[in-house]
Amino acid sequence: MTSARDQILSRIRNAHRRGPLVGANVKMLEERVRTHPRNLIPERTALSQSAQIDLFVQQAEEAAATVVRVEGWPKVIDAVAAFLREHNLPSSIRRSIDPELDALNWESNELLSVATGPAQNEDTASVTSAFAGVAETGTLMLHSGQQNPTTLNFLPENHIVVIPSARVTGSYEDAFDRLRDAYKAETSIPRTVNFITGPSRTADIALTMEMGAHGPRRLHIILVDTDE
After folding, report:
1. What is the pLDDT of residue 3?
2. In sequence order, which ranges of 74-162 are alpha helices (DSSP H)?
3. Is the pTM above the cut of 0.90?
4. Considering the domain 50-225, what is its CATH architecture?
5. In angstroms, rounded to a whole number, what is the distance separating the alpha carbons of residues 158 and 126?
6. Exposure of 103 in the CB half-sphere (CA atoms within 13 A)
7. What pLDDT was estimated at residue 226?
8. What is the rounded distance in angstroms from the CA atom of residue 179 to the CA atom of residue 77?
9. Distance of CA 164 to CAs 179, 199, 218, Å?
10. In 123-198, which residue ranges form alpha helices assigned H by DSSP?
11. What would the pLDDT profile of 123-133 be if each residue is shown by its tens digit?
12. Alpha helices in 95-188 (DSSP H)
């Protein structure tokens, strides 16, 4: 007996006149999955690391994100507080507990209230880290896990993302290569991988741009320059 899944996929293949999935077709698909072949990659990403970082900043700002660069991890806390002050937001955040953010001395800023865990309805700002940045489009790559609840990326109206500048890559393919390398010893990659380019927006109604339609109204990126 064939499963409902097999029946659905079979109908799709027949609709595209692809025929049954047997023999050479199976081998071709297995090879494609195993080798991860690349498609066309924009020439603008073939840059030095420093130039890729500059392109990432440019593309992110064109997508309505704001970007600041800081020297070293301890400066992150001041950058977070400065963003909250600039936008007259409450001095409270909910952050992820990945090792780099968890190692910071958040108690050093006595005016900042810090909570962890999944986002709550009352949260106005979240702070997360990004696995990678894609210079091609100024896009952030974030993945789910116990340390990084996905709700932090979408529920609060203000999303602050911290990323070491060394994690900026040229293309999406480069970012996926890093993800596979990071999890090659694991049984599987993270369940969810989110690509975020700028704050949420829509112009569906009367072609009028509305920020924060389906997620954060603001996206603020803190690029951390380190000695790595």
Report:
1. 84
2. 75-86, 99-102, 151-154
3. no
4. 3-Layer(aba) Sandwich (3.40)
5. 6
6. 8
7. 87
8. 27
9. 15, 20, 20
10. 151-154, 172-182
11. 999 999 999 99
12. 99-102, 151-154, 172-182
Tell me, what's the pLDDT at 95? 97
Sign of CA dihedral 161, 165, 171, 176: negative
| Two structure tokens written together for 226 | 């380190």
Structure tokens at 49: 């690391």
Going from N- to C-terminal start, the domains of the chain cover 1-35, 50-225
Q: If you count them, how many residues does the chain have? A: 228
For 104-113, the CB contacts below 8 A with 24+ separation are: 104/73, 104/74, 104/76, 104/77, 105/74, 105/77, 106/77, 108/77, 109/77, 109/78, 109/81, 111/81, 112/77, 112/80, 112/81, 112/84
Q: Which residue has the tokens 């992110």?
A: 60
Tell me which residues of the chain have a pLDDT lower than 50.
none
pLDDT at 17: 82
* Residue 11, token pair as written in the block: 């109908």
Integer Cα distance of 109 and 77 in angstroms: 8
